[in-house]
TrEMBL record:
Highest taxon above the source species: Bacteria
Record Gene3D superfamilies: Methioning gamme-lyase, C-terminal domain, Type I PLP-dependent aspartate aminotransferase-like (Major domain)
Annotated protein name in UniProt: Methionine gamma-lyase family protein
Organism: Ferviditalea candida
């Protein structure tokens, strides 16, 4: 093989060590695969559901059933799954704009939300059409040093006009643990204790199928995520989903299209089969990516790097954070992940000022779906401490080879 004997035998040792975790992930895959399969069977998903609609897309049966299939898998009252959501950010924005009204206040209790949401939230009536521009006020409460919610501050920050509480399940670009569905259940319980009408919204990006339950099963009222991450199974070409309580999903649908139209229309433009098939594959592929992350953590720990989560820690998202010593490590790592991609392996990524992000970001994104991060990819904001965020892998083998290639090329450059 292409890698040195030393590296391959190290990889073998790591795989022996992580064997138990890989087995657990196999059991998770079986559980979630059955969950998806069972819902497909219940709704009699059929070939004719894949027909493409055009124009208004009235009575697109495939779309209607897909909404219900998502709702059922997430054990929610209702769902909306569309290619018209251009990204995760757009999907989350539709949910927030859908339920919030001028004069409302909302509060993220898991620290600052994901970078791309900062401009959605906006500030000082910035004239951009942000939430702030519409007179919707926002706060967040930083997590405690141990990564848990600061309930004392949260209680103090909830005002009379607070309408919605935001929770981000994934670590995003932060050096913290992701929140398990069990953690989220406890958050929901406490929030509803403070005031039962508060709407609990969860940014579920990167979380789907990483556990046997989803946050809607833990009492969350509204959930949003991207189809070019976990639930698209690597096949969805674009899109997002929202599931949760019927009235809130309807409000989000009104925001996506228009009041009075909501989720009743929307030509699927030939995407429906990929949405179904991707969803069917998602439990397996998420499992492959999780195994890849466990392997990556195990390997980089061998070289003395801090990882989050560690190889044996529980996981509730796809992201494997690895802390490097300096900027050169970071850039070399991301570039070598790109070199191990099936697509655009010849392209050398450089840090750039990506729209929506506050620091230059370098990204390895050699993916079949542009920006698709269920596929093997890596991101690193160029800022201290030098942390790379590795995620995805449509097959365990690819994720493993990507890690081996990265280590091998960093060794070759004298960086390890
Ligand atoms: C990816 C992500 C988003 C935004 O999704 P985009 O598709 O990049 O717009 C929001 N929140 C979290 C936690 C994410 O991982």
């Amino acid at each position: 093989m292409y890698f040195s004997e030393d590296l391959l035998s190290l990889a073998d040792r790591v795989e022996t060590r992580i064997e138990g975790r890989l087995k657990e992930i196999d059991r998770l895959i079986d559980f979630n695969q059955w969950k998806v399969l069972d819902v497909f069977r219940k709704h009699r998903v059929s070939d004719y559901h894949f027909a493409s609609s055009t124009g208004y897309g009235y009575n697109d049966r495939g779309r209607e059933v897909l909404d219900t299939v998502y709702a059922d898998i997430f054990k929610a009252e209702s769902g909306i799954v569309r290619p018209h959501f251009v990204s995760g950010t757009h999907t989350i924005a539709a949910a927030l704009f859908g339920v919030l009204r001028p004069g409302d206040h909302f509060l993220f209790i898991t620290g600052k939300p994901y970078d791309t949401l900062h401009k959605v939230i906006g500030k000082d009536r910035d004239g951009t059409g942000s939430l702030s521009d519409w007179g919707i006020c926002y706060d967040h409460v930083e997590l405690l040093p141990d990564g848990t919610v600061d309930w004392e501050r949260v209680r103090g920050a909830i005002k009379e006009n607070t309408r919605l509480i935001g929770i981000q399940r994934s670590r995003g670009y932060e050096w913290r643990a992701s929140f398990s569905v069990e953690d989220i259940a406890e958050m929901v319980r406490r929030i509803k204790e403070i005031r039962s009408e508060l709407i609990v919204f969860v940014d579920n990006c990167y979380g789907e199928f990483t556990e046997s339950r989803e946050p809607t099963e833990a009492g969350a009222d509204l959930l949003a995520g991207s189809l070019i991450k976990n639930p698209g199974g690597g096949l969805a070409p674009s899109g997002g989903y929202i599931v949760g309580r019927r009235k809130y999903v309807e409000l989000a649908a009104n925001r996506l299209t228009a009041p009075g139209i909501g989720g009743e229309v929307g030509a699927m433009l030939g995407t429906t089969r990929a949405f179904y098939q991707g969803l069917f594959l998602a439990p397996h592929i998420v499992g492959q990516a999780l195994k890849g992350s466990v392997f990556a953590a195990g390997m980089f720990e061998e070289f003395g790097f801090a990882t989050q989560p560690r190889w044996d820690a529980p996981r509730s998202d796809l992201i494997q954070a690895i802390q490097f010593a300096n900027q050169d490590h970071l850039i070399a790592f991301v570039q070598s992940i790109q070199q191990a991609s099936a697509i655009d392996a010849h392209v050398v990524p450089e840090p750039w000022d990506m729209p929506g992000y506050e620091h230059p970001v370098i990204m390895a994104a050699g993916t079949f779906i542009q920006g698709g991060s269920l596929e093997l990819s890596a991101d690193a904001p160029i800022r201290q401490p030098y942390i790379a965020y590795l995620q995805g892998g449509l097959t365990y083998s690819h994720a493993k080879l990507g890690v081996l290639h990265a280590i091998s090329s960093m060794l070759g450059k004298g960086l390890l």
